[in-house]
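Notes from hallway chat w/ T.B., transcribed later so I don't forget. T.B. wanted the structure written out for a chain they're using in a teaching module, and asked if we could keep both sequence and structure tokens in one place. Agreed to drop them here.
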Amino acid sequence: MTAYTIDALVQDLRKVVAEHDDPRAVLQQAAPMASRMKDDKGWVRPEFYECGEDQGFGITVLHEEPDHSLLVLSRLRSGLSTHLCGLSFECQGAFAIQ
């Protein structure tokens, strides 16, 4: 089985955001896509586990559209595993997987 990459996720998210105006519909389709990423951690790099001691979390931007309409990031909370998160500013929705 071919690994589901960040680039593939971004392409799929672009399609979903273009097809739906309702944030709930975007999130329903985006969450299963992001869940595919948890099965293959090939996209995770050591720096994703760097956590700001004063803030207790770390964020790595994996992709951001030039117009800021789509953002995909990795978020780390102190002492926990890294999370893949996405946010479309256009539809004001977010998803997260662990």
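Follow-up for T.B.: The chain has one domain: 6-42+55-97. Might be a good example for the class.
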